[in-house]
Write a structure and sequence with these properties.
The protein is 36% helix and 20% strand. It is an alpha+beta fold and 378 residues long. The relative contact order is 0.14.
């Protein structure tokens, strides 16, 4: 008898298996624009600036078919999709929709960990409607989101956060995937390594040089080998390749900072080139700040010189930064104080920190799953 089929009254010394749902809205910003403007429906849409220095904040699925994606320069996006329609972002509308969605989450559980305006983890092991099947809860949530917001969501259902997040991306858009207890390792090993959270383009390139292309390739490596080649990140990779993740869903999760950086293929040194690069980073980082609903007082500029020496400079305000323009102005003021640079740089980054505590309570709502109970239906 599998874990998912065991009745509640089977005695056991094992802790209760978690039931985690990861909900991810489909092309959220662009979908809100298409919902609110019927003329945009079925057409390739990009949210963001269309000027030469603009950046795509979000793209509809019609635009993604042409290769358009978030954080892409607008000129590149337009080249890929000549019929692309740019619309300015409306964060008030996105927040309103996000609040509706989070209310739906809280109808089912208080253990909700938002990652941004459009995605969250939910622990429904013990849920408010006493529904024993996590799959059924996910179906209900998706139906309620569609009915109340006229938007679609994809969901992943599993027994830990890592697997639930992978599953939510498996059948997008407007889809759902369930990874049941005992299935995680096999599922992970079928995936390309780029699907692993934290493995970016450079990490993928390094792994390719080491002969790692899939989760199965990664699972074939022992912890010592991974530690030798990837340092502390190797421990995460070892566990991820086996579908292991013990992190709880934290409804009082505190984000310490929001930022972004760019590593250049050719070192940069000229003042105007550096200012243009900073503008590009501001666009990308501010979109992340808005998505995270972050508010903070400190702006930090990071530069890495071509000799790999790292330098950071920060400025703090007595109150939160007011908008993207002020965020950019502070970043440029820090940069201008450093110009001319003593030597070229290979990386630039910008971060907002000293963030307000947003949705947290002082109490950590720990899971109520230590009574030795068992799952009814997954």
């Amino acid at each position: 008898m599998s874990i998912a089929e065991q009745p509640d009254d089977v005695p056991t010394d094992e802790p209760r298996q978690r039931k985690i749902i990861h909900v991810d809205m489909d092309a959220f910003f662009a979908s809100v624009e298409q919902r609110d403007n019927p003329e945009l429906r079925g057409k390739p849409v990009a949210v963001g600036g269309s000027s030469g220095r603009g950046v795509v904040a979000a793209a509809s699925y019609e635009a993604r078919r042409f290769g358009v994606k978030s954080a892409m320069p607008s000129v590149t996006a337009k080249r890929l999709c000549p019929d692309l329609i740019f619309v300015k972002s409306r964060f008030d509308a996105y927040r309103e929709a996000s609040e509706q969605i989070r209310a739906i989450f809280r109808h089912h559980t208080d253990l909700v960990e938002p990652l941004s305006l459009d995605e969250a983890y939910l622990d429904v092991t013990v849920n408010k409607l006493d529904i024993p099947s996590a799959t059924r809860v996910a179906q209900m949530i998706r139906q309620e989101i569609r009915a109340k917001t006229r938007l679609t969501a994809s969901a992943g259902v599993s027994y830990n956060k890592f697997l639930a997040k992978l599953a939510s991306d498996q059948n997008k858009p407007d889809g759902m995937c369930v990874i049941r207890p005992g299935e995680g390792a096999a599922f992970v090993q079928t995936l390309p390594i780029r699907r692993f959270h934290g493995v970016g383009p450079r990490g993928e390139e390094k792994m390719a040089r080491l002969g790692i292309a899939t989760g199965a390739d990664l699972a074939a490596k022992d912890a010592a080998w991974l530690g030798q080649h990837f340092g502390s990140f190797g421990e995460y990779l070892y566990r991820a390749a086996r579908g292991i993740d013990d992190r709880p869903v934290r409804s009082n999760r505190i984000r310490k900072s929001v930022g972004g950086e760019r590593t250049f293929s050719i070192d940069r040194h000229e003042a105007e080139e550096l200012r243009t690069t900073l503008n590009e980073i501001v666009e990308i980082v501010w979109e992340r700040i808005e998505r995270a609903e972050a508010r903070g007082r400190t702006v930090t500029l990071k530069l890495k010189y071509n000799d790999f020496q790292l330098m950071t400079r920060a400025r703090s305000l007595p109150r939160n930064v007011h908008g993207k323009e002020e965020f950019a102005a502070i970043g440029h003021a820090i940069l201008d104080d450093l110009l001319p640079l003593p030597r070229p740089i290979r990386l630039m980054g910008l971060t907002l920190s000293n963030l307000e505590r947003d949705e947290a309570s002082d109490e950590d709502p720990r899971r109520r799953d230590t009574d030795g109970g068992q799952l009814a239906l997954f």
